[in-house]
Amino acid sequence: MSEKISVLISSKETEARIKVLADQINQDFAGQTVHLLGILKGSVFFMCELAKHLTIPTTMDFISCHSYQGTTSTGTLTFSKKPEHSIEGRNVILVEDIVDTGNTLSVLIPMLLEMKPACLKLATLLDKPSRRIHPEIKIDYLGFTIEDLFVVGYGLDYDQQYRALPFIGIVEQDSEGEKKN
Ligand code: 5GP
Which residues span the domain enclosing 29? Predict the structure, then answer.
């Protein structure tokens, strides 16, 4: 069974937008240090592109939690990697690939706040606000708002495939005509 992928946001557009976000972070944290905390694995491409444009001192770490199988949320979270480095007293920017229902972040953010960072900001490449069930999630640095579509590429997967696509794409119908979202 094969999926068809169409381009939603090009590589050029994605990278230009990430540069704008990095410039904003450089301004907001001028004279300070930031600690990027990426959520594996989806945030990796976004975080690397963002970090490339940060001119302020920057450190990086990753955490891992899982809530999705295929295109459907399981509604549960499993944390498989906690921060390796202490975030206490640091300016932490949590880097996410996409905010969907907000379930993941509604668990993760309180857990990170307990670790007493100096501040905790949220950067996400994509946002699907129409799917949100946690309106309390505040995004500080947003790449793009998208419709309720299942997207892949630029770190985002469909059953571990398509992460390495340099653009953000939509999974379209497979060979049997089954819609992917
Ligand atoms: P939430 O907890 O906000 O519902 O879901 C967040 C996570 O679900 C994201 O980090 C991502 O792993 C996954 N997710 C949500 N929407 C999509 C999507 O359109 N495509 C892919 N590949 N993953 C998604």
Answer: 3-173
Q: Given this model, what pLDDT does residue 174 score?
A: 64
pLDDT tens figures, 79-130: 689 889 999 999 999 999 999 999 889 989 998 999 999 999 999 999 999 9
What DSSP element (H or E) covers 55?
Answer: none
Whether 106 is in the pocket of ligand 1, judged by its Cβ within 6 Å, is no
179 is a domain residue: no
Query: For residue 141, what are the contacts with CB-CB under 8 A and spacing of at least 6?
Result: 21, 24, 25, 93, 121, 122, 123, 124
Determine, yes or no, domain membership for 181: no
Into how many domains does the chain fold? 1
For residue 76, give the CATH number of its domain: 3.40.50.2020
Residue 113 located in a structural domain: yes
Pocket test for ligand 1, best of 72, 145, 156 (most atoms within 8 A of CB): 156
**How many A from CA of 1 to the centre of ligand 1?**
22
Classify residue 163: in a domain, yes or no: yes
Rounded mean pLDDT, 47-57? 98
At residue 36, the pLDDT reads 98
